[in-house]
Amino acid sequence: MEDDTVIIKFKGLDNKLLNKNQFKELLRGNNVTIDTSKILTDIKKGSGALNSINLTIKPEIMTNKVIKKNELNYETVPYRVIDGEVQ
């Protein structure tokens, strides 16, 4: 932002798990590994446990095609299907 405030938004993951440098690495196309916790439950036993896991995040652009990439800035256009072919 203009006042140097950093806003991190991340789909599918709590944005508090990523710091500014990790987010930049993802934008550069690099994988990032974070340590987090996950609740695992066993319905048959009626139990649950909090387990620590290493989670590797892989950057993927699934809905848009990158047409111009400059450091951390991207210009994209949506994929289109023409005559049954994704373009």
- The end-to-end distance, rounded to whole angstroms, is 34 Å
Number of domain modules = 1
Low-pLDDT windows of residues: none
Overall pLDDT confidence: 78
Sheet with the most strands, sense and barrel status: 2 strands, antiparallel
| Proportion of beta-strand residues | 35-45%
Radius of gyration: 18 Å
- The number of helical segments is 1
Helix content: under 10%
Number of strands: 6
User: Structural class, judged by helices and strands?
Assistant: mainly beta
Report the order of strands and helices. Answer: HEEEEEE
Q: Name the overall outline.
A: flat
Order of strands in the sheet with the most strands?
1-2
Protein model, in words:
The chain is mostly beta strands and 87 residues long. The protein has one domain (15-86). It is built from one helix and six strands, in the order H-E-E-E-E-E-E. The protein has one helix at 20-27, and strands spanning 32-42, 47-57, 64-70, 73-78, 81-82, 85-86. The strands form three sheets. It has a two-stranded antiparallel ribbon with strand order 1-2. The chain has a two-stranded antiparallel ribbon with strand order 3-4. Strand 3 (64-70) and strand 4 (73-78) form a beta hairpin. The chain starts with 19 loop residues before the first helix and ends with a strand.
